[in-house]
Amino acid sequence: MARNSRTDWSRILAPVLLAIIVVAVWETAVRSGAVSAMFLPAPSDLIARFWLELTQGPLLDHTWQTLIAALMGTVLATLVAVPLGYLIARIDWVDMAVTPYVTASQAIPAVAVAPLLALWIGYGLTPIAILCAVVAFFPMLITTTIGVRALPQDVLEAARLDGANTWQSLAWVEAPLAMPSVLAGIRAGVALSVTGAVVGEFTMGGKGLGMLLTLFRDANDTEGMFATLLMLVILAVGMFTVLRVLESLANRRQRRTSSDMRQQLDAASENDQVMTVPLVDAAPLDR
């Protein structure tokens, strides 16, 4: 117990200590003149500028636009990737037909897809959300497929022995067991969707952190660019952390579901053994 406690604290303290060292060296390098503040603002100046943009500037409004686009893209990608990943895992001909095209699509960069979406759909929130979905789609599909294929067969057999039909097995057994893998893919997709939103705002305009980065770049405002990048990091890490918590809860449910179904399978096996024990021949009666 003590060793596990030390390990948990080490996982927290190690990145915090590294961040403190990096920030201290960064601040010292800028304040001493070794690095020009024109190219790399000091952390203290960056925090001050970030707070100014957050409270008095347009940073918060642009953040909401990027967040909405990223969430819309994540939801859209989930609605397509999760069912398709399940079909690929369960139906061989779907796997053979779809997988080569999905793999080939990853060779096309998002920055090349954005102008096509603008040409086909136009400008605004919708094409940016679709671009986010395109970027987030692949990791969701892969993790869903792997998660479904890795489901324990003995647990699925226990559900069938319990009388569950296909839909009941999917809803009450397969979905809870595969949920950690699905959420892991969504967690990766969320971070990528933020990147997709920024790329879309770069190429298709509108409001958002990508547009704000463009404005600060054109004005040669390094502090403003770093403040916007800091908000992007906070946005991605926040969404990632929320899904990580949901994934932990899903892992607990998965372990509980697996344990319950295995207990039912063991009970069914014991009952079968009792039913199949041969009866001992009774001693012949004396005549």
TrEMBL record:
Membrane topology annotation: Multi-pass membrane protein
SUPFAM superfamilies linked: MetI-like
Keyword Cell membrane applies: yes
Coiled-coil regions listed: none
InterPro entries: MetI-like, MetI-like_sf
Residue ranges annotated for the ABC transmembrane type-1 domain, each copy included: 63-243
The keyword Cytoplasm belongs to this UniProt entry's keyword annotation: no
Signal peptide start and end residues: none
Transmembrane segments: 12-30, 67-89, 101-122, 128-151, 184-204, 224-246
Annotated compartments: Cell membrane
Principal subcellular localization: membrane
UniProt keyword list: Cell membrane, Membrane, Transmembrane, Transmembrane helix, Transport
Protein name: ABC transporter permease
Protein source organism: Gulosibacter molinativorax
